[in-house]
Amino acid sequence: MVYINHILGDKVMLDEVLKANENFVKNFEPKKMSHMPQKKLAIVTCMDTRLTGFLEPAMGIERGDAKIIKNAGNAVVGRDVIRSVAAAIYALGVEEVMVVGHYECGMANVNSEKLTETMKMRGVDEETLSGVNIDEWIGAIGNEEENVIKVVEKIKESPFIPEDVPVHGLIIDLYDGKMKVLVED
Ligand SMILES: [Zn+2]
């Protein structure tokens, strides 16, 4: 049903969000905050829904403390993550970077054949997909821990990232919130 609604272009969530926002604003005490991260920390993590409202308290991070860069599978595909980390360092005073993966990641073991089929079904034409390695394009990962280690390396190896900024790699358990250090820089 959701699928059909989206195809027809219905605003499934917009009204609900706007109503929630109205209530939020009514009860919120506005305050001015600096855009500089108070803990001088940047975090590269996954867009997984289960990390929302979970990762920050699990790391002792509050509003205003850290730059959080999220994408599918906390991956570095193309230049966008490097761009954001660089902006965090050079423009926003970040002095330490953490790549935080999680177990049971939706980007692990992506079925690229199925994904390609779905893309075609939704109107992406053959020509667009021809010659594209979908696994690479979407940033599919094999093992979550190995991915964190690889992403730490990619950030550290980038010529745009200064050598004196430590880049650590960690992984969080979505069930109990326990974190494990994979790379201590
Ligand atoms: Zn994930």
UniProtKB/TrEMBL annotation:
Record's keyword terms, sorted: Metal-binding, Zinc
Q: Where on the tree of life does the source sit, at the highest rank?
A: Archaea
Q: Which SMART domains match?
A: Pro_CA
Task: Identify the cofactor(s).
Answer: Zn(2+)
UniProt KW rRNA-binding keyword: no
Pfam families referenced in this protein's UniProt entry, alphabetically? Pro_CA
* GO MF term set: carbonate dehydratase activity; zinc ion binding
Q: Which residues bind Zn(2+)?
A: 46, 102, 105
The free-text note explaining how the cofactor binds reads: Binds 1 zinc ion per subunit.
State if Zinc is listed as a keyword.
yes
Q: Which InterPro entries does this UniProt record tie to the protein?
A: Carbonic_anhydrase, Carbonic_anhydrase_sf
Record-stated family? Belongs to the beta-class carbonic anhydrase family.
Name of the molecule in the record: Carbonic anhydrase
Give the organism, scientific name: Methanobacterium bryantii
